[in-house]
Inverse folding.
């Protein structure tokens, strides 16, 4: 798991799901380029966050990680319903937000934090 400031980088997993699962998290400081390291490339060859390592299995992309964890740890029905049609609505939203919001939010974020398109502000 990783952390980075920007859209699409936070995957929410409730505390109840994490407790007793054996999962742990590791912060990745993208402002220092940590996600470009050879060590991180072993988890995600694309060198982007978020990423998941579960034993020898690795996975990238926030929606894929969310679905994997929801299925592996049998997320409560209010998070990821068992009912096929209700689950399809959740999947529909996840697909929509990933494609419809991400580029617009990223553009807005860069306009806010980047002086005249010069790149991120110090500390990012």
């Amino acid at each position: 798991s990783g952390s980075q400031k920007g859209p699409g980088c936070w995957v929410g997993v409730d505390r109840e799901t994490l407790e007793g699962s054996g999962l742990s998290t590791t912060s990745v400081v993208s402002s220092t380029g940590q996600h470009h390291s050879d060590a991180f490339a072993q988890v995600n060859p694309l060198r982007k966050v978020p990423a998941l390592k579960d034993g020898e299995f690795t996975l990238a992309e926030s929606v894929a990680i969310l679905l994997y964890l929801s299925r592996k740890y049998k997320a409560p029905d209010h998070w990821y319903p068992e009912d096929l049609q209700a689950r399809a609505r959740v999947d529909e939203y996840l697909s929509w937000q990933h494609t419809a919001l991400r580029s617009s939010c990223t553009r807005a974020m860069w306009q806010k934090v980047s002086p005249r398109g010069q790149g991120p502000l110090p500390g990012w």
Notes: The beta strands are 51-54, 57-60. DSSP finds four helices and two strands in the chain.
